[in-house]
Amino acid sequence: MIVTIQPSILSGTIHAPASKSSMQRACAAALVRKGISVIHNPGTSNDDKAALSIIREMGCEITINTNELIIDSSKAFIHSTSNIHNVTSTINCGESGLSIRMFTPIVALSKNKITINGEGSLLKRPMDFFDEILPQLNVVINSNQGKLPLQINGPLQPKNIEIDGSLSSQFLTGLLMAYAAADANNVSIKVNDLKSKPYVDLTLKVMKDFDLHVPANNNYESFTFNKPINQQTNQPINYTVEGDWSGASFLLVVGAITGNIIVKGLDIQSTQADKKIVEALQDCGAVISIRDNEIEISSSNNLKAFHFNATDCPDLFPPLVALASYCNGTTVIEGVSRLAHKESNRALTLQQEFVKMGVQIELQDDLMMIKGSPVKAAKVHSRHDHRIAMACAVAALKADGEIIIEEAEAINKSYPDFYDHLKKLGASVTQS
Known about the structure:
The protein is of the alpha/beta class. 29% of the residues lie in helices and 25% in strands.
């Protein structure tokens, strides 16, 4: 799909999309819980659909109602054991990095041989973490030289282990969920150099909300499971998926660049890492007002360059680059090393696509430096990366002419309504 965006002034009110970080974790927790869970405000992105497909293949019964899902996982586990009862020998995680990293340890609770695969860029992402860790937990694994597909044969047995947390906290999320499902007791997961700690906070919060066995967090250096005093109740769990700070960050940058908009459905107290976008917006001089469950933001003609550490929130790089393009001076963003294994190598992709629009980006060690410049009309490519497509679309709204985005359907991975939301706010967006 090709999307053409004309310079536009935006205004109005929009609801933030459902958080796929929250939604996918809720799906995993609903599976692990071994009961009935009702998920309100469910997400509809491709990654969300992948998570739902996985838990269905693991034996969950899913009823879809208006703005809610009813998930019954009571038949997903073999009676009186912690072994998962899969109904298929193959699991497909689509292009979802969170799904592959989170669900692999959970799926490994099965005593049957299962093949785990994915699509697109996920096939290129490193999975050798599992080659190292799963055998320590009595799981037989064969990978494609550290990449997909994975063939695993459990069941996983919780033990004291030590893992590297520098690549992604999502691996830890999967292990925490799997240990909870396996009724882990008197065991710890030691973590070295953990990145994206706020996402671990989100995992622990979701586990608590679903009445799961939540480990003790020892300053993010280790997580200890001891037998819980209170056992899980049989009452249905009700969980509401949060508004997505990751997707909403693009909307907020739109407001700062060219508009006066209100984004509803955002909780400033959220554990989501990407709520730090507010700090960058304040630092660059955007006109911003934070109220209960909504944020109002207006454009300014005097945005200034800022310094931001995105090590724990690397998904903010694309919207921050779009913002920095309109800031006077050179913006510096730390944490480039976190971008290598995304849907694309985002540091290089941002550099290569934004230079087409006249924006110079320099990469130096772990730093990205963006020189604010007039954004020019151009033809760009999403590189099949949802956040690159959205960053280019946001930058286009105050360019000196139209921006054409090729393979623009990449947004379906996380925010399928993105272009429609821009149009609702008054943007000139055409699709072909």
